[in-house]
Amino acid sequence: MTDLRTYVASLVGALVLSGCVPAESPAKNDADGAMDVRLIRSATVLVTYTNAARSMKILVDPILADEGAEPPIDYSNDLKNPRIKLPIEKSELMKGVSAVLLTHYHSDHFDMEAERTLPKDILIFCQPYDEAHLREKGFTNLKVVRDVVHWEGLTVSRFRASHHQGATGAPPFGESSSYFLQTRNDDVFFTGDAILDDSLKSSLRATQPKRIVANTGECQFTKENPLLRPGITMTLTAAELKEAARLLPSSKIVAVHMDAINHCPLTKDALRRYVDEEQLNDRILVPNEGESAPHP
């Protein structure tokens, strides 16, 4: 693959790099396309925007189970997932959802309750590596994001990401992806489960997002296992969030993926203390469940 800047430019052109409006969907007013980014729980985020006077809702990485209803992630501890409740009723959360964005098919991003309860014909944006698995589960309305897709006034661009140090994409971790969502007047970058290696740095530099929804929690295994040495982090660390803030001085970082999954030891309270100590309160936001991230 050529360098990522050239790659992005060839795929997304001026749209991604300069924020230009797609020719097929001219802007109607300044409010059209502004995105509300609301943390639901863990990496589950609800993105709401207006397209041609219609409200569009995209549910990212739905974890829908009741507190403690699903088994723990292996090789960590015996705490059942999710460890906290949803901030709103499930029926209220799902009301009017237009589509799902699945960053990658792991049980802490698409749980058994989501598999059971989501309509099988709901539109799901997914990475190529998860298409077969989703179809095996009966989902029929898939929009596979290989590079970039356009839908309802939204541009979705995918970037390959490393789930852990030295990740090769081989099982059991599969491929992980980051996503850049852009409307005519707004944008947000979802890191997915990624570490801050050269791949993620290049993706962030290329897109220069207004907001970065960053999966943290410092997820890791604590027990010996055949998959990954204990202590190797599989999501962004507090120190990596600090580095990302330095790398993109104009971006707001919205830290998520904490308190709900058993193998993620970094808590919201601990991260807030770190952010305060490092004087990063104006750069790194740590919302509670149910809260929306303000626009920068």
Automatic annotation (TrEMBL):
<dbReference type="InterPro" id="IPR036866">
    <property type="entry name" value="RibonucZ/Hydroxyglut_hydro"/>
</dbReference>
<protein>
    <submittedName>
        <fullName>MBL fold metallo-hydrolase</fullName>
    </submittedName>
</protein>
<dbReference type="InterPro" id="IPR050114">
    <property type="entry name" value="UPF0173_UPF0282_UlaG_hydrolase"/>
</dbReference>
<dbReference type="Pfam" id="PF12706">
    <property type="entry name" value="Lactamase_B_2"/>
</dbReference>
<dbReference type="InterPro" id="IPR001279">
    <property type="entry name" value="Metallo-B-lactamas"/>
</dbReference>
<feature type="domain" description="Metallo-beta-lactamase">
    <location>
        <begin position="58"/>
        <end position="258"/>
    </location>
</feature>
<keyword id="KW-0378">Hydrolase</keyword>
